[in-house]
Amino acid sequence: MLKTKNLLYLLGPIILISSLAAGVTYAAFTDKGKVLGSTFSAGSADIKFLSNITLEANSSNLTDELTGPNFSNISPTWTQDYLIKILNNGTSKLGLVTNAYYETANDPDDLRSDIQVEVIPWSDLNSNGVVDSGEEGVSLGKKTITKWKTEGFDLGEIGAGQQMPLILRFSAPTLGNDQQGSTAVFDFEFEAIQL
Predict the structure, then answer these.
(1) The domain spanning residue 167 has which CATH number?
(2) Does pTM surpass 0.85?
(3) Superkingdom of this entry's organism (predicted)?
């Protein structure tokens, strides 16, 4: 038993030194990296109308609201275009939809059921504010003011900083004799949805 005890005393320090040496031999270097100050900015949805469609889209030519057109002497053979340019003044891609808005008190003779609007994309390639040959796109359809309010039009997508020129083509092919002299007031709303 004494021999075993002496052997442990002799081998103990050797095992300890060997273990320490082995630990040093297998040591690994470590390092850390950090990403500091990460910033997250929410995008914005902001549409504007060009006040003057023949001018550039600068801050003095942008507005949230336009005065609507005043159409007089409409008849079953009447048709007239109203041109607008919408600018995505935000930082995100947007989906655009449009609807008519009215109160029946502003349309006592139900002109909303006879006046039609056709929405047509317009390229205005030369930026002159005039619909030239080849600038009209494919019609998005034709609806009465009533259907424009309830169903609306999906105008598609518009990227940040891009313009969407549109032709709103009005007509009244079903206007009846009983509506002669009638007047109505309608608003058109354009809504941007961030994509």
Answers:
(1) 2.60.120
(2) no
(3) Bacteria
